[in-house]
Amino acid sequence: MSAPDQCDLIIRNACVLTMDAKRSIHAPGAIAIKGHAIVAAGPEATVAAAWTSPRTVDADGAVAHPGFVDAHLHVNAQTCRGYFRGDASKGGGAGPSYADWKAMLSGDDEQAAAALASVEMLRHGITTFVEPGSAFEPDAVAAATQAVGVRCTLADPYLWDDTEMMRTIPGLMSPSLAKRVPPDRARCLKLLGGQLYRNRDKDGITHGHIALYGEGTASDELLRAGKALADRDGVVLNSHIGYDLDLAAAMEQRWGKPRFVHLAELGVLGRNVTFVHMNLIRDSEIDPILSTGVNSVWCPFAYASRSTVLRQPTRLPEMKRMGATVALGTDSARQSSAGDAGFLAFVMSAEVGQTLAAEEVMEMLTLGGARAAGMDATIGSIEKGKRADIVVRSSRLAELGPNIDPVHQLIAAGHGATADTVLVNGRIVMRGGRPTQVDEQAVIAAAHASAKGVARRLGIKPPGMWPLAM
Ligand SMILES: [Zn+2]
After folding, report:
1. Ligand 1 mean position to 38 CA, how many Å?
2. At 88, is the pLDDT very low, low, confident or very high (cuts 50, 70, 90)?
3. Tens digits of per-residue pLDDT, 241-269?
4. Among residues 16, 93, 194, 280, which one has the fewest Cβ atoms lying within 10 Å of its Cβ?
């Protein structure tokens, strides 16, 4: 037998959910990491025979899994918790709306919100998120995510050239937002692809993709331009569709046919195209979705918070079983926490009679998310050659034992802020449930100061029902 090779870090004594092609689980398992990458994962004895390392993390029997991917998270929502309740689409009546909040943010506010989101995500086991072109200053988000050590993909802000349809959802499209990012094709075509330079650093944790806002706000020309650029650069084209059922119906009316039939005819579907929400799927749209390999991102909180199930039960659990790639997203965490999506998908799939197995939810959070983000070659599983984006859960929490059915345990009970140790790109960015790269309390304090500042500039008051002395 040859002597073991040297690596930089070994995680041992873990219950390793690999998410490899066989969905192998190793307990006790180990993971060897060298530089940014995983060099081995398997039974502990096998890894120990081949690899040695000066640094070891003893998982104490806890679950280790590939970092979750939040395939849709608007960082701008992270700091407005407490100022808005209810349906995000409402607005324009009494006081400022969520769209007014967005329009008010400075780069410093976006940086504070992104840092807050990042530390929150790490504790929930999320190591990568997709910021879908809703930050005015992507550099500010990049600075925050790099400081915390979270992987992120960014896009140019608010690419839309026809916002007429959005008039029906004033909470998402205010005059203030239209003023800041006017619907203008020339502006969009000029900005399109502006974040893709980030992909030149193949070893980095900040990436770029193409996002069009969507929901009927992109002309056919803009859609074609976005898809052509995504094809050319090997990235994902990301867009909202079907958040609002009335808007979906209006799009059908405009195009004279179901949306995915029109999009297929335009030639803008493919496995590098990701649509977010997908709350309406007609029978005639199933074939274009499946045959082109388009990815769907389900945001179960957004779906549930508008009682969508009463009008249109989601078909995404069913679509996953038909072979579609389905990922999960937080959307806006105004009334939730980043990290709730898996549990909510698990619960809400039962409500529509398509109960997802924990294993299916796990696939959505890892492999599905990686593909929806355009990163399935590098993240989403614990396998040799992939980036070391790894979460080790706590071994000492009541809800995280005793690993008899570790996948179900993780998705059904241990899904919350239960991460102990988190690696992104081979670096330990959380240890003992605390970020290692930033002062967590300073991040939280900066985010709270930013939130209060935005609220003051907007003149908005907390909406609580009971008297609050401040
Ligand atoms: Zn969204």
Report:
1. 32
2. confident
3. 999 999 999 999 999 999 999 999 999 99
4. 93
Distance from Cα 410 to the centre of ligand 1, integer Å: 26
Residue 335: pLDDT band (50, 70, 90) is confident
- Residue 132 Cα to ligand 1 midpoint, Å, equals 7
What is the distance in A from the centroid of ligand 1 to the CA of 149?
Answer: 23
Token digits of residue 9: 């870090």
Q: Inform me whether the pLDDT recorded for 470 exceeds 70.
A: no
Contact between 373 and 390 (Cβ < 8 Å): no
Please tell me the distance between residue 159's alpha carbon and the centre of ligand 1 in angstroms. Answer: 13
Q: What is the DSSP letter of 355?
A: P
Max CA separation in the chain (angstroms):
74
| CA 188 – ligand 1 centroid, Å | 18
Residue 124 clears pLDDT 70, i.e. is over it: yes
Strand, coil or helix: what is 154? strand
Give distance in angstroms: CA of 404 to centre of ligand 1: 36
The C-alpha atoms of residue 213 and residue 202 are separated, in whole angstroms, by 26
DSSP secondary structure of 312-338: ----HHHHHHHT-EEEE--B-TTSS-T
Quickly count helices (H) and strands (E) in the chain. Answer: 18, 20
88 and 98 Cβ atoms separated by less than 8 Å? yes
Q: How far is the CA of 72 from the centre of ligand 1 (A)?
A: 6
The alpha carbon of 276 and the centre of ligand 1 are apart by a number of angstroms equal to 7
CA–CA separation, 241 and 296 (whole Å): 10
Domains (ranges, CATH) in the chain? 5-66+382-435 (2.30.40.10), 68-372 (3.20.20.140)
What's the CA-to-centroid distance between 305 and ligand 1, angstroms? 14
Q: Does residue 467 register a pLDDT over 90?
A: no
CA 302 to ligand 1 center in whole angstroms: 9
Distance 309 CA to ligand 1 centre (A): 18
Q: Residue 148 C-alpha to ligand 1 middle, in angstroms? A: 23
Query: What is the C-alpha separation between 274 and 211, in angstroms, rounded?
Result: 9
> H or E stretch including 226?
helix 220-233
Q: Can you tell me the mean pLDDT for 438-460?
A: 97
What's the full length of the chain, in residues?
Answer: 470
Distance CA 322, CA 299 (A): 19
**pLDDT for residue 92:** 58
Tens digits of residue pLDDT in 356-392: 999 999 999 999 999 999 999 999 999 999 999 999 9
| Distance (Å, whole) CA 251 – CA 243 | 12
Point out which residues pair with 393 in neighbouring strands: 419
Amino acid code (one letter) for 74: H
The Cα 330–Cα 341 span in angstroms is 6
